[in-house]
Amino acid sequence: MSWSSARLFDDATCTAASFPPPRPFQVTAHEALRQGARTGHKNQLLMAPTGAGKTYLGLRLAHEAMLKGKRAVFVCDRTTLINQTSQTADRYGLAAHGIVQANHWRRDTSLPLQIASAQTLAKRDYWPAADVIIIDEAHTKLRVWVEHIQRTEAVCIGLSATPFSPGLGKLFTNLVNATTMHELTQSGVLVPMRVLSCTRINMDGAATAGGEWTDTAAAERGLAIVGDVVSEWAKHAQQRKTIVFGANIAHCLELCRQFVDAGIMAAAFTANTSSAEREVLLREYRKPDAQLRVLISVEALAKGFDVPDVGCVVDCRPLRKSLSSAIQMWGRGLRASPATGKIDCLLLDHSGNIVRFLDDFTEIYFNGLSALDAGEDLDKAVRRDQSNYEPKPCPACGYVPFSKRCMACGFERQPLTRICALPGEMQEVIVAGKKLADDQEHLWAQLCSYACTHSSPDKQRGRAWHLYRQITGSEPPKDWSFDSSASVAVTDHVRNRITSLNLRHLKRRRA
Fold first, then answer.
1. What's the pLDDT at 414?
2. Same-domain status, 97 and 242
3. Which of 95, 207, 395, 432 has the most crowded CB, counting CB atoms within 10 A?
4. Please, which residues have CB within 8 angstroms of residue 316's CB and are 6 or more apart in sequence?
5. pTM for the whole thing?
């Protein structure tokens, strides 16, 4: 690239940029990506929950590249997000961008920032020149960019709230957790989720494929309670702007029909909804005083769709493997909306998903992911329904459902592990009356040594981290390095404890 073209980029795009001040976690995440690049990671993945500002972070990365005279491409996985991302870029002063999408009026490949439709890239077998590629919703793993990032020399940053797809650890070599849902809720970026367990779809004996219920089976069972969905929404959420998730398009259309028959302005927003109709629906739905109160979808609204004043999510799409899909659906209602005085999001759970995924969702809510492979495992496990199971309330505040830690007040059950204080600085680690280690750092060294001999190299660090958290109930301190931990003998008590944890996990999987 010539000096003159670099200078043109600076004049055209950089001096006009006006990003809002970053939040502290966004600064930390940005620096973590820089550090990853400095240590040789060409492809990195940023895990950022709903509300963390993935588009903001992605466009800041693009702007930083352009300040250095480089080109950037921001890839959207769906055409519906192209204009939304373009409008955000305009708002940040990055108006000098082109759009790679069929017949789009902003198509201009000479500009240094391109916002590209993955579908158009695939159809035309064309990639704009780029030094930095930002991939939104990277968990979708579309072939067009999966293949490209493995052969291009460009730096690649994937963005995802739920990086649980198989094989991400082979495409990206570094995971950066921007923040957690808990931290965003505490800071007011997200609102608390209030759950009501409603008339539940009966999935006993329903057909499955690959361990997951089929959309057809879920829709057939869901049709039996459509009347309950409408009546319970009218009872609990009539004043709230709402998104309803159905199992397939036929299910969504029937839900829509019964909402409309009940005098409620509702519309289906599915793969069959034309682009022109989508624009009309979204323009009305985004209004603070919108007449359109309910949008109904399968997946078209589950990812990247942001209307902050959505105050209710109705989950009518039963799942038992895809935690990532459940998190994406629930996240549509969690954004704060100070302008409308929104204080919480009401989840009307007709699917039973909140109970099936409670333990794993609680872990993600408070801690995010320790490694990309950990996310992949979460979307592989089949969760079984427990007959006549009623979710328990939090002992401290009454929030339902409650697992190990309350997502409303933070109350946490004390783990079985206790630290036994002895004279001086040493604190023994005692579990079930048995001494596992001289102190916590000794336990960490044992777990690192165990992981090195029982896990593949790419999983050793994550294995040690998870074992430490399972045994102690807390994360190892961030200044404890896996690579520099001492090689020590693993005591029989530690080995037995790990075996017990493995058997418990295997029992749950078989259940």
1. 58
2. no
3. 95
4. 201, 222, 225, 229, 244, 245, 246, 247, 251, 255, 350, 351
5. 0.76
